[in-house]
Amino acid sequence: MRQLPRLAEQVSVGQELKVFFMGDLHLGAPDTDYKLIANHIKTVEDDPDARLVFMGDAGEFIDFRDPRFKPDVASKMPRRYKDAHLSLDGGVVQEAIDHACELFERVARQGKVWAWLDGNHEEKVVTKHSFSPGQMMCKELNILSRYVGYGGYVPIHLVRHQAKKVGYTLKLDLHHGWSAGRRDGGTLNAAHTELANTDADVIARGHSHKRGTWAFDAWRVGHKLPIEWQRFFITTGTYKRGHVDTNVAEPPSTTYELRKGFTPKTTANMGGVWLTVSLTSGHDQKPISMSARL
After folding, report:
1. Under the phi-then-psi rule, with left for phi > 0, alpha for psi from -120 to 50, and beta for the rest, what region is 142?
2. For residue 23, which of 156, 163, 144, 177 has the smallest C-alpha distance?
3. pLDDT tens track for 168-201
4. 276: domain CATH number?
5. How far apart are CA 124 and CA 49, in angstroms?
């Protein structure tokens, strides 16, 4: 697991940092909700207290040379990706890299990206083409120091603005993910295992295309008293619907999700997860307060 350079955020007691965990965009796929992606990124851009953690699978990265390529679905790809098939300038892989950089350029320039992960689709490009699209995106966005790879640990120093000293180090355990199961029970069972592996405050996983938040109450040993310690396990969702709408007279388009029997996503169940973090006064023995929402 890779550890990023430690990041610092100056905050006041009670000030809320809102961290948006998003991933599994699958840019280039015909069933990706591109409007929703743009709206959510703009929300982060426009809020001075918002930050972003990207959880991998920025692009679909599948072209006609790939065994996963299906012509019936590819016919519904966005025009820019259809044109990229005929381009000598990197094809759909380069198009997805360019597209991601366009989407995240402003939020990266604002310094709001805490971490950037690869997913299994980026790893497939590394295997097939011997270069890392994740690193290329981070280099173009000037956030290479935020590049984690497939998984890693990210400590965030929350510095008390007035006292100019660290009030708490928020520990993130980030990994693109390992499970695409249909039932939440498998995710929860894995969550208990993951919670036992580190002392992270927040464990985030992608890949499953589910959105979920689970809070776990625990205790830490303080200098004088036990300290209440609430930890979160979150699964960070997707922007890929899992189905392509066609009319009665059109040939059907069968996505991977439909072939495998996954339930197609509704718009209400798509997107990322928000985590809110704030420093407390410390009088109640809890150094931070956290909550998560979909």
Report:
1. left
2. 177
3. 999 999 999 987 666 778 888 888 889 999 999 9
4. 3.60.21
5. 35
